[in-house]
Inverse folding.
């Protein structure tokens, strides 16, 4: 998948990930606020948690990853909208 395809369909991109595979380089090692919001929503409802955590860690979004792991979804959403 290319960057545009990934950003337009995170569900498909995350579903296609295998252990050890990363899409970080394809998205330029960063996220838009919309990307982070979508990933946070998926994580909150229990979808692709491991993949999302791996992806955030790989892109050096450690603080955001910890918030999700700890279930601090409200704090996470506040953080991503303070950019």
């Amino acid at each position: 998948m290319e960057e545009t395809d990934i950003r337009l369909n995170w569900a498909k991109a995350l579903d296609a990930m295998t252990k050890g595979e990363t899409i970080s380089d394809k998205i330029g090692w960063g996220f838009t606020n919309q990307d982070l919001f979508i990933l946070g929503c998926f994580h909150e409802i229990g979808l692709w948690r491991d993949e999302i955590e791996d992806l955030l860690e790989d892109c050096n979004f450690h603080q955001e990853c910890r918030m999700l792991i700890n279930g601090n979804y409200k704090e996470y959403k506040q953080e991503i909208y303070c950019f």
Q: What stands out?
A: The chain has one domain: 3-80. The chain is about 60% helix and 0% strand. The chain has a mean pLDDT of 92. Residues 3-80 form one domain.
